[in-house]
Write a structure and sequence with these properties.
The protein is built from 5 helices and 5 strands, in the order E-E-E-E-E-H-H-H-H-H. A 3-stranded antiparallel beta sheet has the order 2-1-5, with no helix packed on it. A two-stranded antiparallel ribbon has the order 3-4.
């Protein structure tokens, strides 16, 4: 509560002033200039306790709710997608071959006679090669697939949040016909 002082004018009107206006020249509605008393002399005037004016708060409508919900869904989706995208390992697993193995194969092939080498080559050509992947490679590919699934789920949340945000553009605006209606259901035109 703030104190308001009533400053009388010669016309009979009482001007409402506060302590910040002490010593100022004020204009009344009648047009006369009235000198406000100094800060010490304000206590001699009639005082009124005045409650501070409260601002009317705006009610949240459907549009604000949709904006909030859509924004939260979009933000969560972005966080999920970005997090899992950063945590996803590279597509190709890091498989290294021991250089000693390559040297051993080179030494064995280099020591073979030509007829034995051709015989080994023909034998390998007629056999079916084992094309199965190492267990570590299979596990790596499963992990990449799982992480990408979470990333796509996050992107789906982003799309859903964007749709909720877009729907807020169409909600909450009254049409011109709704604003001109009178209580009896008739238009004011």
């Amino acid at each position: 509560m703030s104190k308001v002082y009533l400053l009388p004018c010669a016309c009979g009107e009482k001007l409402r002033i506060d302590a910040s206006q002490a010593g100022l020249d004020l204009r009344c509605r009648c047009g006369q200039t009235v000198k406000a008393p100094t800060f010490r002399e304000l206590s001699r005037l009639e005082q009124v306790e005045e409650e501070p004016a409260t601002r009317p708060h705006a009610d949240w409508g459907a549009r604000q709710r949709l904006l909030l919900i859509g924004g939260m869904i979009t933000a969560c989706g972005l966080a999920i997608a970005a997090g899992f995208w950063c945590m996803t390992p590279p597509s190709d697993p890091p498989v290294t071959i021991d250089p000693r193995f390559i040297q051993a194969i080179d030494a064995e092939v280099g020591a073979m006679k030509a007829d034995k080498l051709i015989e080994a080559w023909e034998q390998m050509a007629t056999q079916e090669l084992d094309r199965s992947e190492l267990p570590i490679v299979e596990a790596h590919r499963r992990e990449v697939k799982r992480m990408r699934g979470f990333t796509y789920a996050g992107l789906a949340l982003v799309a859903a949040g964007a749709m909720v945000l877009a729907s807020s553009l169409f909600v909450g605006k009254p049409t011109p016909r709704q604003t001109n209606r009178q209580p009896g259901g008739r238009s004011s035109r």
